[in-house]
Design brief:
With 162 residues, this protein is mainly alpha-helical. The chain contains 7 helices and 2 strands. The radius of gyration is 35 Å and the shape is rod-shaped.
Amino acid sequence: MNSKPMQEKTVMFLNQAQAEQLKEITTHLRQVRQEKSIPIEKIAAQTLIRAGVLQALEEERFEELPEPIFVQGFIRRYGDALGLDGNALSHALISNVVRQDSNNNHNNSDNKVNIYIPLVVTYILLLVAASAGLLYTLNPPQITSETLTPKVNGQQSMVTNR
């Protein structure tokens, strides 16, 4: 399997600071696990995280990992299983991820504002047309005798009913 295309996946999800922070966290987790002599399979069974994913974390093969939000959960559960504060470990990583994603979302939301303006205009026009149709249906124009009288040679003729 060629790891070159997988490398690009990591670049999309993790910036350089996040990758460095993830390396520090996973190195610390690996050291604690090894000091406690806990096999990775036991951590996998306890956390319900596949052993392959835990090995990829420990060996810094981040291109094999899913999106950072999932990695955050893995780190939290892994830290908790080792008796560490998993929330603090995962928060250190996610604070970088959230900060980057919120900047991206802010830029995207500026672009979306322009899309909604035409929709509002369309909805207003549709509402006006529906209101006019309803008003016409409920109050039809009054038909008078002048509109029914035919004109002969430019003059109005008298129609009588017998």
